[in-house]
């Protein structure tokens, strides 16, 4: 074999290795940060004036895009309770029966509920705390100077699960926004 041919083979091998690493990284990111039901996410995010990447981040944190996921009494992609689903159906004047575990319905109700929380609290971290820890808890935390300086944002979230949830959703949100760039 000539030296030129060996050099070309070496360059090809390097290029294949680089492409393999890049492909592996991209595959790893898709596994770590899945996206499914994008059509429903975009539709209901748009209808509720939400950033679709925020909705993806919530779904990632809540269910990792597994539609039949359950945690306690909550279920579905956005981990709604039957009570929250019923509130959404009533607030939306939703006519007819529904299955809140159905991916489209779950995303539709979850986006409506996120918009509701944003309209109440305004601050996204406070919204996420309410989504995870409940509005009653957040309302009491906002009244407590130990947890809030201004009554609208939380300087400290006393529930470790909720505190970690807010961090996780924000990290997911940032990642999904960066994936789109």
Beta-strand portion reads under 5%
SS element count, helices: 8
Compute the number of structural domains. 2
The computed structural class is mainly alpha
Query: Ends: how far apart?
Result: 45 Å
The stretches of 5 or more residues where confidence is low (pLDDT under 50) are 19-29
Radius of gyration of CA atoms, rounded to a whole number:
21 Å
Provide a brief overview of the structure.
This protein is 67% helix and 2% strand. The protein has 181 residues and is an all-alpha fold.
List keywords for this structure.
181 residues, mainly alpha, Lysozyme, 2 domains, two-stranded antiparallel sheet, 8 helices, 2 strands, 2% strand
Spell out the blueprint of helices and strands:
Elements: H1 3-32, H2 38-47, H3 52-63, E1 70-71, E2 74-75, H4 82-91, H5 103-121, H6 124-133, H7 135-143, H8 160-180
Helix pairs in contact: 2-5, 3-8, 4-5, 5-6, 6-7, 6-8
